[in-house]
Structures are given as C-alpha cells and as structure tokens.
Amino acid sequence: GLVRSTPFPAAMADAADGVERTNPMKDLVLKKLCLNICVGESGDRLTRAAKVLESLTGQTPVFSKARYTVRAFSVRRNEKIAVHCTVRGEKAMEILERGLKVKEYELWRENFSETGNFGFGIDEHIDLGIKYDPSVGIYGMDYYCIMGRAGGDRVSNRKRARAKIGAPHRITKDETMNWFVKKFEGVLNSGKPQNKSNFRARKGKKK
User: Is 0.85 surpassed by the pTM of this model?
Assistant: First the structure.
C-alpha cells in the first residue's frame, strides 16, 4: 500500500481557517419514539386506550401481554394489559414536541439513560391536542425516545462482518442532554424524587 505523505486537502483547509470541523455523520437524530399505555387489565378500557394511540399516531398499535401472574393486581399471565406503538421520522419528532410542550420543555437529568436514550410520562392524553371524548375517557402514556447517529449503526446490525460499535461512535448521556437543550431550548432539573414501591419487599415477608 501507498503511504500518503501530505495531509488531506480538507484537513489543510481546517488548519488554515483555525476552525474545528465536526463529522456530520456523528450528529444525533431521533431514531424512534415508543409510546406506551399500560391499563393493567384487558377488555374495554384497553380497547379505548388503543383508539387513543391510533388517533395520535395514525398507526395500528400492538397489544402487550403480562409476563407473569400478579394476584395483588388481578393480573394473569399472558393477559393483554397494555398497548404500545413505535413511530419514526418526522411524525415521531412532531409527537415528541407535543409531549415536551406538555412538560413545558423541562425534564429531569434522571430521565436520561447512560446509553443516551430518554423517556418521560404525561398524565392526560388530551393535553396533546386530542379532543376529549366522554366515551373514551382520559389516559396517561409513557414516551421513550431511542437516539441514533446520522451515520446509522449498520455495523452492529448487518449480516456480514458484524461488529460492535466503537467507543467514539457510542451515544452518551451528556450528548443527548446537550441535544435536548439545543434542539428544544429545554431545561434540565436535577434531584428527581424517588418513588419506591414496597410491593416486592412485602412479597417475601412472612406475617
């Protein structure tokens, strides 16, 4: 192989300008948005929740089943208890912006994961601009945003010569928080109060 003795023209231009260029393929993008409504029971309430997601996204939602039986909550294994939908592209950004508007563009630092994704919840779906229907009722929902690079992550998904994504190309918590602040002029709060459930602690104790 030949060894290039002179630097690339682009690198020379950067050095002359004194400007540090960034790689456009490393820009953060919203890969997909997952919307979830957990009702905790099957039947009419779950069907109405599916109608809410369908009216919001324009897609057919998918039902989720319980993984195991929890008698305290009257939940049986394999019973349909929740409904979710995955949105991508411009539609995902539009729905995300409507959700953040409800939160007044304020999120907790604890909403962001170490892998660079983030999520939050809203209490009433009518805050998103959906007209209230007495026959449907009011539902809250979970938002979860999966982030990606403009260059994609094909190296970890392709069939041939599959490999792990290198450390410089992985998305960090700080990167996503900076993206949220710049993109939406958002506010980050710290010290989110922890809601700890005593259900599992009581489960193992004998009376």
Answer: no
